[in-house]
Structure formats: C-alpha cells, structure tokens
Design a protein that fits this description.
By secondary structure, this protein is an alpha+beta fold. It has three domains: about 10-80, ATP-grasp fold, A domain (Dna Ligase, domain 1, 2-Layer Sandwich); about 85-215 and about 315-325, D-amino Acid Aminotransferase, Chain A, domain 1; about 215-285, no CATH class. It is about 25% helix and about 35% strand. The chain has helices at about 1-5, 20-30, 55-65, 135-140, 145-150, 180-185, 190-200, 230-235, 290-300, 320-325, and strands at about 15, 35-40, 50, 75-80, 85-95, 95-110, 115-130, 155-160, 165-175, 190, 205-210, 210-220, 250, 255-260, 265-275, 280-285. The strands form four sheets. It has an eight-stranded antiparallel β-sheet. Strands 1-4-2-3 form a four-stranded antiparallel β-sheet. Strand 6 (about 95-110) and strand 7 (about 115-130) form a beta hairpin. Helix 2 (about 20-30) runs antiparallel to helix 3. The longest helix has 14 residues, at about 290-300.
C-alpha cells in the first residue's frame, strides 16, 4: 500500500493489527463493513474474509481465535468497496516489462454463485491485450520501480472497479498465480524455457495468443482443506483421458495399472490416477469468452473421477459484468460472444 501511494495510486482505506484479538476489539467500535487479510508470511488464503457486517466480522474473528487459527505476523482490515473485481498482470525480465499486459478475472469461492469457502481459486478468465485502461491506471506507473528493485517474473494486481469507474488496488501476486499459470502455458507460444531464459538475459521473446482463455480446477475430497492422508486421496482413477491431452494439465496425478474398459471388455492398463485432492486444471482458448467457457466445460465433462469437484459457472458472470466494465473504458479488447 505504501508502494502504491508513493506512485500516486490510491488503495482502499485500511487498518493493521498485531493480533486477531486486537482486530476484534477495533471492529466492536466500528460501523463499517470490512475485508480481512493477513500481512505476514502466511500462504493460507482461506484466512481472507469479506464480511457482510461488523457483527459478521466479529463472529469470524472469534471463531478463528477459538480454533487456534492465529496468522503469522500482522493482519489487516480494508474498507469494503462494492464493485467488480478485475486484475491486470504482466511479465518482467532483467530489462523491464516483456510481452503484453494480461487482464483476468478470478473465481475464488468453492461453489457456483460465489458461495462456500475460499479455495485460493477455482478458475480464471484471462486475455492478453494490446491496450488496457487498467494497465495505464495502476500497473504501468510501477514498472521502473519494480525493475529497479530487481523483480523478475509475473506480477498481478487485483483491483475492484467501483460504480464510478475508479480502480481500487486490492492485492499483489508477485509470482505465477495458481491455476492462472496453467492457463498462461496454454496461451504462450514456443518453448517456455526459451523465453524465460531470454527474459533473465534482458531480452523479450515472449509470444502469446490474444484469444480469450478460461481455466477450471478439477478436484476431489477433501478439497479445499487438504487434511486427508495420501492413502485416502491417492490412487483414484481418472477416466476420460486419452494419452496426454493438451487441455488438461495434471497436478496431483501419477500413472499406475487400473481397471479400464476396452469396448465391452474390462482390462487392466496404465491410467492416470490421483495423488492429492487438487487433481488438475482444464484450460481452453477461443475467439470469445463464451466460446472459451464452452470448450473448457466440454473437456471438464469428459474427465470422470468419483466425487469430482468442479465449479460450473467460471466466467459466466462476465455476460453482465463485461458490458459494465467496457462502459467505464476497461477490457475493451475482450468479447463475450463471437461475431
């Protein structure tokens, strides 16, 4: 937030606290709706929470304290700003930005309609773009300072666009996002080692597709908690995979002999099987967001795992949100439908 302020970019008003107890005491005296985030060295994004009211936030803070979920380091409350979440990212090499900017929309909740616990991310809509207002407003001004600091790799800035069209930065991700990087691999052309090596050497050889793209996470119980032992989550057969498909990128997967069908006959052959509750990511591209969505779910439907977990509405809210963003000057290169 200090970094943004230094570059003339306003972030949502916020307060920091040394503990959950201190945070709770503050909310008791407040009449604002707050968003809770961790600030220390804590990878557990399930601790992020957008409250419905001060009472709701207090109840959540009390619950975390009761079950011993105390974050490492300081915590933060940001004032809730209603609007549409919309993010911008770009890769950076030794000599500065490489490749074009990339717009994206994350879907963090487990269930359709944005219900259930935070998972980190259940799927993403993404598109590389040649020109973008969000880039001009919040990311381009940071380029020289990021390069001077020695940053290399991807950096993403997630924002909320309020009803007046103002972009409010919410959080940085200064690493490849997950599962966003799976989707980038679908969009990038050529050998990834080549353009990454060139970036470290101060050259820009990153070539991308400018099509819309969508990714969907495929999981199994006990996702998103990951508390079951490997004996429980390992060895579940993944049917519907033929060879090594281009549009399903495995994560918690290995190969072992399993029963399979050959016509009407049951045989044993090498199959992909699970090794964890986070199984893999379906990726797709298309000339429009709707086309990419349809292609992603066609592949997702073909993949069969007992007790498969998949969110079935990734990207669909953009049918309403994209025209609103475009009326404010954002995401002009994205299309919901093909002509």
């Amino acid at each position: 937030m200090e970094f943004l302020k230094k570059h003339g970019i306003e972030a949502p008003p916020s307060r920091t606290f040394k503990s959950l107890k201190e945070c709770e005491e503050f909310v008791w005296k407040s009449d604002y709706r707050w968003v809770f985030k961790t600030l220390g060295d804590n990878e557990d994004k399930s601790l992020s929470y957008c409250s419905k009211s001060p009472a709701d936030m207090i109840s959540r803070l009390q619950r975390w304290q009761k079950i011993g979920m105390n974050p490492k380091g300081e915590v933060m409350l940001q004032e809730f700003i209603p609007g549409i979440e919309f993010a911008i990212s770009r890769w950076m090499g030794k000599s500065g930005w490489i490749g074009p900017a990339c717009i994206n929309w994350e879907h963090k909740k487990l269930m359709p309609g944005n219900f259930g616990p935070n998972t980190g991310e259940m799927g993403t809509v993404m598109q590389y773009v040649r020109k973008e207002k969000l880039w001009d407003d919040v990311m381009e001004p940071l380029g020289k300072s990021l390069s001077d600091m020695g940053h290399m790799g991807d950096i993403d800035l997630n924002c909320i666009i309020d009803e007046k069209g103002k972009a409010w930065p919410l959080e940085f991700t200064s690493r490849p996002g997950w599962p966003a990087f799976n989707l980038m691999l679908e969009q990038h052309k050529g050998d990834p080692i080549k353009w990454m090596y060139d970036a470290i050497d101060g050259k820009d050889s990153l070539e991308v597709s400018y099509d819309a793209s969508v990714c969907v996470v495929i999981a199994q119980p006990d996702f998103p908690y990951s508390k079951l032992s490997y004996e429980v989550t390992e060895g579940i057969p993944i049917y519907g995979i033929k060879g090594n498909p281009k549009h399903f990128q495995p994560s918690g997967v290995m190969i072992q002999n399993m029963p399979d069908m050959e016509g009407n006959k049951t045989v044993e052959r090498p199959l992909w099987v699970t090794t964890s509750c986070y199984v893999g990511v379906v990726t797709s591209t298309g000339p429009s967001i709707q086309t990419a969505i349809n292609r992603a779910y066609k592949t997702a439907d073909e993949i069969q795992i007992s007790d498969k977990i998949v969110r079935n509405d990734i990207g669909k809210s953009l049918e309403k949100d994209l025209p609103k963003l475009q009326s404010m000057g954002y995401a002009k290169e994205a299309r919901w439908q093909s002509n």
